[in-house]
């Protein structure tokens, strides 16, 4: 396909044969990791105002807000593999930081009734998924650029 650079594919295995599903990534909005980071950011915004500790609230929103722009910047630097991997590593670090702050929020929710514990646990699961996807993107990018 002219104008497209394929950097992501999924292999679906069947008993007798393999089918390779190729998804063309033309801009950063085509990346599932980017889409998920923005979806989860909206949920973080809805949840975070119920956390009474300003420092935790601020750190949680800052780290959640940083993931999508880092993925975007890494994608825009794809002609320079070192820069791309650096930005993807920073996005993974921010995602792990969100997980840590959500763990703190779950601990706080045991004593404070204002924090929705179930929502924090759901966010923990979703950000764990995001971290795994970022790790797969990072690994795929390293293989692709090598």
From TrEMBL:
What Pfam families has UniProt attached to this entry? Answer: 23S_rRNA_IVP
InterPro entries associated with the record: 23S_rRNA-intervening_sequence, 23S_rRNA_IVS_sf
According to the record, the segments passing through the membrane are: none
Which named protein is this? Answer: Four helix bundle protein
